[in-house]
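Duplicate of #3305? Posting structure anyway:
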């Protein structure tokens, strides 16, 4: 697993029209595209993860960390898990 970084998407995909950052993961649309590109270096992804976390504060940071940790361990974010359980 050392050669892969889990995407920071926590399935709360709404962009703040003022900042341009996603409410869930704090990435820009360009950063989201780079995460999906298989040619994007792992070093860039590690640094970008630090950058997006630094953009967060308060409840957003707490929610992200909890859901991202869950996703890394369980393979699915808490929000996505809850959505699937409602169906």
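Output from current build:
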């Amino acid at each position: 697993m050392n050669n892969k970084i889990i995407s920071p998407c926590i399935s709360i995909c709404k962009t703040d029209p003022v900042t341009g950052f996603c409410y869930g993961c704090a990435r820009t649309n360009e950063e989201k595209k780079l995460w999906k590109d298989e040619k994007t270096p792992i070093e860039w992804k590690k640094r970008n993860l630090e950058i997006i976390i630094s953009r967060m504060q308060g409840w957003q940071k707490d929610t992200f960390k909890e859901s991202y940790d869950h996703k890394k361990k369980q393979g699915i974010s808490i929000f996505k898990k809850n959505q699937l359980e409602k169906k």
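Confirmed duplicate; merging threads. The two ends are 31 Å apart (CA to CA). The chain has a mean pLDDT of 93.
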